[in-house]
Amino acid sequence: MLEASRVFSDYVRSSRDTKAPVIPRIDELDLTIPEKDGIGTAGIWDDIQTICGAATNTWSERFLYKLYASPTPIGVVGEALIGLLNNNAHVFQASPIGALIEDRVGRQLAELARFPVGTAAGLTFPGGSYSNMHALMVARNRRFPELKRSGFTGAMARGEWRRPMIFTSAHAHYSIEKAAVAAGIGLDNVVSVPTDADGRMDSHALRMLVEKALADGGAPFFVNATAGTTVLGAFDPIDEIAAVCADHGLWLHVDASWGGPLALFSSDDRFGGYRVDRADSFTVNPHKLMGVPLQCSFLLMRDGLAPMREALGLGASYLFHGGSPNVLDDVGDATMGCGRRPDAIKLWLAWRYYGTEYFRRRLANARRLALDFADMVSTRPPTALGHWRLAAAPQSTCVCFWFVPSQLGAHPTPQPSWGDATRLLCTRLNYLGHVLVDYATVDLPAGSLPTFFRLPLNSPHVTKETLASVLCAIEQTAKALLDEDPRCFDADKS
Amino acid sequence: MLEASRVFSDYVRSSRDTKAPVIPRIDELDLTIPEKDGIGTAGIWDDIQTICGAATNTWSERFLYKLYASPTPIGVVGEALIGLLNNNAHVFQASPIGALIEDRVGRQLAELARFPVGTAAGLTFPGGSYSNMHALMVARNRRFPELKRSGFTGAMARGEWRRPMIFTSAHAHYSIEKAAVAAGIGLDNVVSVPTDADGRMDSHALRMLVEKALADGGAPFFVNATAGTTVLGAFDPIDEIAAVCADHGLWLHVDASWGGPLALFSSDDRFGGYRVDRADSFTVNPHKLMGVPLQCSFLLMRDGLAPMREALGLGASYLFHGGSPNVLDDVGDATMGCGRRPDAIKLWLAWRYYGTEYFRRRLANARRLALDFADMVSTRPPTALGHWRLAAAPQSTCVCFWFVPSQLGAHPTPQPSWGDATRLLCTRLNYLGHVLVDYATVDLPAGSLPTFFRLPLNSPHVTKETLASVLCAIEQTAKALLDEDPRCFDADKS
């Protein structure tokens, strides 16, 4: 344990070094598994150091690749604690403390979401996709209760049946589609609702699509609104969407895996005014904007855990002995899983450690940095190498932009060749490994945007200097690529 | 970090104390979350000690409650390492080392399972239920490929459709039924196959039930065989089941969440001769018999990851950029989730540390203890308090038995009142908290057994002395209950 603390502390120190690579080169690694005797204490610390040295460095402020970032130290301690205790949050007696903490944190999150106090509750799932999938399953089985027993074929054999239909924005996370595949609903019954120019779901289009589906004999039952889309970070207009759902009796789920903490903690009206409480269920991933290590995802239910139990519970007697007045008994039966890591412990610990105010500050800082960075990109002076263009005004804490090499001219509107340049630059940049960034694209009413750089702002270690250095690194990479091949960015090249 | 190592080491020492409770009393706990400022470093170690003190003590050899047990120290280090690195195993670049290790461990497990080398591969899922569910989804979409796009309603609208049917033993884990609910197949289409007197699936009954389903116009497609049932620890006869599957073109999945390591590592022919390689997919949970902290579950696929990608992949372009020749790219797309903890790292680390031979010894020890314990129960002399009866010969490492209080007489066959006594004794025993054991029941061809004690043997800390002390504790509890109420066990009482 002492050795672990030394190795781990060294790792944190070296990872935060400004020269440390974000993606280390992995050369020859000996990953063989000993047939007979293990390497024991003598060799294992070398192994651990090898893994540390070969791991993607999420502690660096130059890890700007995905929606999660540097874990907080207390988060790591929480993770180690969960491993140490090896408690299981499926039945109360297997971990009373895990159940109590999960209940407490779930209720606190529900309160921040302005869900009804005392009724609303939440459970953790192994990631936002699973939280979203559970919400869909609960909504499906509540609307079509015969499915649990009869399945689709049994239910349909008994008479007229309408197609269960799901609505989600064109910019929403693909987990909704995966959940539809899992649920036997199929991709054809996931209606993609177009967005406005900012990437927010067009609620008029939603209403029309729902009404059309009804007119065509479909059975709309589930709308997924996103708070913080994966690429642009947009917040779908929840009040308008909730009105459509209320008019047609649809389950409203909010996938706030990314933007949820902004909605819960932010004092900025843009996010804090977001009326999550109009939803039936709500996913938030503290492993993203709150710095808890992967995974920590909560699914909050406005009406508590009862609908989950009803939809999915089987009450397997060998495990769930029931008969207890304790509502925290047997929560595992409300999920599609069985054994459960008590992930809430790490969020509780971090929340106790930092307090609510810290998260408000952290989120305000991320938002401010996004605005500053957007400003930095749009005002950065062009050079002989090229110029900079914002792809969209930052909706929350993602910044999307192009570097347009001079070879591609100075078009007022985005060109497909900008996308090729982005992919080329990004691939080389990430190969070099000093910064790790990502690219994406989206469809907007005016058409599909060429591939752009997408930087999520999250880690409190990121500063304006970090971001300026990323822009420099992109310019330097452009120069290096041009030095190798002066025609590398030419539009006719790709 | 230093403080963490001190607190954690103290915890391990005190948890292994022979007097330490397994379920501590939880009195007043302050779980409040600070509105404004956090408690910081000053208070957090008290919090951590509070949690440690209130947690269920899985390190104790007297934790004999569920199928997991004491985590190995290297497992805890592995868990902490995963938290520290905060790497994500969804796309290769987010964690090359995580992907390489997962691939390596998956192939090593597949090799032990005698799956075709070079083809078979595995991925981790957040628990055995999710592994089983993924296997079912893959099998469903492979057999009915139109479901991915059209869903059941679309597919059925296009013409004649037969009910997809699943077969699993009456003693199998309930996750198969949950998966059927999730998949839109429904509980009515899960055919429960009876077992023989030892709790092993009756393969003749399976064949008859499959043929009956076909004759009735159903579409059998998936058989779940269990290697290590949850209660009796039975191994379904895989060769006979595989023959039925081959004859009718059914997907054979083996849920070896519990017994898998015996099948993979044991030199005992009873388990080591188990031909896992006859299956299409195979779930094994190293977090059970291998002492890796929760969760660590592998789903192995005989034909590699391609069927997973085909069945579930959407290739969301914002995340999965594709175009790489690397087969380890974008493994997340092969799952129903998105972000993934690289759980394989902790198994790899433990395997490197201990070597294969350690696991063979550990498993042989667990099996030997089960046989010894069964012997101990059946030969333990009766006292004035009552006598002992085995509920079943131990199929692998679970021992199931009754303590029959004298008040209930000396019937040659199990009586319902024995079950009441078991529940009463177990509840009191667990309330006292010095040992934690569980009870269960099963249906056998001769009828349903009254509730019995079920002890899974797993932890290497358990000795014959531990087990003798459990039997003593049950007798003492019986005495204490009788002292309080001499009629507590009377058959007419319940």
TrEMBL record, chains A, B:
What PROSITE patterns does the record tag this protein with? DDC_GAD_HDC_YDC (PS00392)
Instruction: Look up the domain of life of the source.
Output: Eukaryota
Gene Ontology MF annotations: glutamate decarboxylase activity; pyridoxal phosphate binding
Q: Which cofactor does it need?
A: pyridoxal 5'-phosphate
Task: Please provide one cellular component term from the Gene Ontology annotations of this protein.
Answer: cytoplasm
Residues modified to N6-(pyridoxal phosphate)lysine: K288
Asked whether the keyword Nucleotide-binding is assigned, the reply is no
Annotated Pfam families = Pyridoxal_deC
Give TM regions: none
Q: Report the record's Gene Ontology biological process terms.
A: carboxylic acid metabolic process
Top EC category? lyase
Alphabetical keyword list: Decarboxylase, Lyase, Pyridoxal phosphate
The EC number(s) given in the record are 4.1.1.15
What InterPro entries has UniProt attached to this entry?
Answer: PyrdxlP-dep_de-COase (IPR002129), PyrdxlP-dep_Trfase (IPR015424), PyrdxlP-dep_Trfase_major (IPR015421), Pyridoxal-P_BS (IPR021115)
Q: Which family does the record claim for this protein?
A: Belongs to the group II decarboxylase family.
This one is known as Glutamate decarboxylase 2
